[in-house]
Amino acid sequence: MVFWNVMSFPLTAGLARFLSPATRPILLLPCAKVTSCLTLVLLICFETVLLSTVSDCTKSFYVHWNTTNPIFRIDNTDHIIDVNKGNYPFEYDQVNIICPVYTPGTHEEDAEKYIIYNVSKEEYDTCRITNPNPRIIAICDKPYKLMYFTITFRSFTPQPGGLEFQPGQDYYFISTSSKDDLHRRIGGRCSTNNMKVVFKVCCRPDEMHNNQTVSHAHAATTPAVTSVSTPAPVSHPPSHRPTVQVPHPTFAPRPTTHYDVPKPTTKKSSEFDKHP
């Protein structure tokens, strides 16, 4: 009776309902946390796999920006680089511009230092920067420290003022720095050592359409050739056998006409047999 009275007390009854298994919502919180954690882990794994797949399809270029690099020789066209060629949408190539680095014992006057600019076609051809505020790509002014600058050839960038590379356009990088003047903007090693690079971004929309059209046309003609060539051996023997059998009936009447003389003698129906 005392136990029943205690349970019938309003405060005690409410506490009992809170402690009952059916009314304990606080126990659901760990399950929710586990579910959210598993979802987050799955999303991270999916994004990692997607990024790794995309990165395998893209290409990375390495340009050592110094006078000993053979791509800057005037007797070749290695300084003209095609990027984003053959890539799928949202796949972008990268270039790593590596600054000259020297051992600590090297004299500083013997070390090469550069400022690399993104310039126009005219400035590229003349090695003369006329833009008062040129776009600086890289500053290689620490010869005893490994420095490199990575550029992604994407058509848009989330960073304000970042580089954007439109399909079908050419982008020109030069360095007019000289041995004595890092900030020189006329001549410099652009003129003496041909320190310039062209990046040709593929492709214009019409070129992409033409490439897709050619690929589809090639894919369409390839099965047509195979379909014609495969039944040819099967259909040829039946068509060839009647042509071989046709001459036999044509030659058969000829021997019969040759031996056609004794036939009327047996029948005795000709006028020559009746009157010898």
UniProtKB/TrEMBL annotation:
Protein name as catalogued: Ephrin RBD domain-containing protein
Record field: compositional bias (Low complexity): 222-233
Biological classification of the source: Eukaryota, Metazoa, Ecdysozoa, Arthropoda, Hexapoda
Main location: membrane
Recorded GO MF terms: ephrin receptor binding
Similarity remark: Belongs to the ephrin family.
Keyword presence, Signal: yes
Biological processes, Gene Ontology terms: axon guidance; ephrin receptor signaling pathway
Domain (Ephrin RBD): residue spans on this chain: 58-201
InterPro entries in the cross-refs: Cupredoxin, Ephrin, Ephrin_RBD
UniProt region (Disordered), positions on chain: 222-276
Location(s), subcellular: Membrane
Originating species: Graphocephala atropunctata
Source organism superkingdom: Eukaryota
Keywords: Disulfide bond, Glycoprotein, Membrane, Signal
Alphabetical list of CDD domains matching this protein: Ephrin_ectodomain
Keyword Membrane: yes
GO cellular component: plasma membrane
Pfam families named among the record's database cross-references: Ephrin
